[in-house]
Design goal:
about 260 residues, outer membrane lipoprotein receptor (LolB), chain A, 13-stranded antiparallel beta sheet
Length: about 260
């Protein structure tokens, strides 16, 4: 009886010895724990698109509403860094009604159906009251093409919320706050407060999609402190195209004067 128990014991001993030899020949796969996401890393990932964007070309619809009144317009927008914009306001049939060129604080526009041409500084353009929206043209353009300020070296981490890292940036005329998603590193919300006056804008960035290697929201919603609501819906986006300089110029008929 003892011999039987001894042989059984020896049998199991040999089995486990062979098993250990085999297992040592195949070392366990090393599992690397996921890196902890820091506010600095999240910001770096979030601002990659803004940092690498050289040109922007998009077709979009803009809806503006205030006090139960509103309107909608389709535009084609071209942008070239650092500060060149060409905007084509289109009819429902896709015909260009108005072309606006904004570059380096100067503004030109031409309305072909009325034969009207304007050329002056951007500040003087604002004084003409031609632009009737509460949100000024330059700020609206910055919202659309993603010139948020995330790449500014003066931006700093403010706090951590449930799903977001929150950052703050103070520049010449604005105090800006940004909410970056902790998982996908998308800019989901920003809040711009003008230092002078009581003007502010709350911006939501929704339905991110991949456009030519860049993550970009398909919709941007802007709520102003005055009650104006702006909804931007992108139909088509192309980035880093080779945009010729003539796209940011206006050909005026020789019989027209400023």
């Amino acid at each position: 009886m003892l011999k039987v128990k001894y042989f059984v014991y020896l049998k199991y001993l040999i089995f486990f010895f062979i098993l250990s030899v085999i297992l040592n020949c195949f070392p366990a796969k090393k599992i690397t724990p996921p890196k902890k996401i820091t506010p600095e890393n999240a910001l770096k990932k979030a601002n990659a698109s803004e940092k690498n964007l050289k040109t922007f070309a998009g077709r979009l619809n803009i809806k503006v509403r205030k006090n139960k009144k509103g309107f909608s317009t389709n535009i084609e927008l071209l942008h070239k860094k650092p500060d060149k914009f060409a905007i084509y306001f289109k009819s429902s049939l896709g015909v260009n009604l108005l072309k606006v060129v904004f570059r380096n604080d100067s503004l030109l526009y031409f309305r072909s159906d009325e034969g009207r041409f304007y050329s002056d500084s951007y500040d003087n353009f604002l004084k003409t009251k031609t632009w009737e929206w509460d949100i000024d043209l330059k700020t609206l353009l910055y919202f659309i093409v993603g010139k948020t300020g995330l790449t500014d070296p003066k931006i700093s981490f403010l706090k951590s919320e449930k799903k977001y890292f929150v950052y703050i940036l103070e520049v010449d005329e604005w105090i800006k706050k940004f909410w970056i998603d902790k998982k996908k590193f998308f800019l989901k919300k920003s809040y711009w407060i003008k230092k002078r006056g009581d003007e502010s804008f709350l911006i939501h960035y929704e339905k991110y999609k991949r456009f030519g290697g860049f993550n970009y929201p398909k919709e941007i919603k802007i709520n102003s402190s005055s009650g104006e609501r702006v909804k931007i819906k992108f139909r088509k986006i192309k980035v880093n195209l080779d945009l010729e300089e003539k796209r940011f110029e206006i050909d005026i008929p020789s019989n027209l004067e400023n």
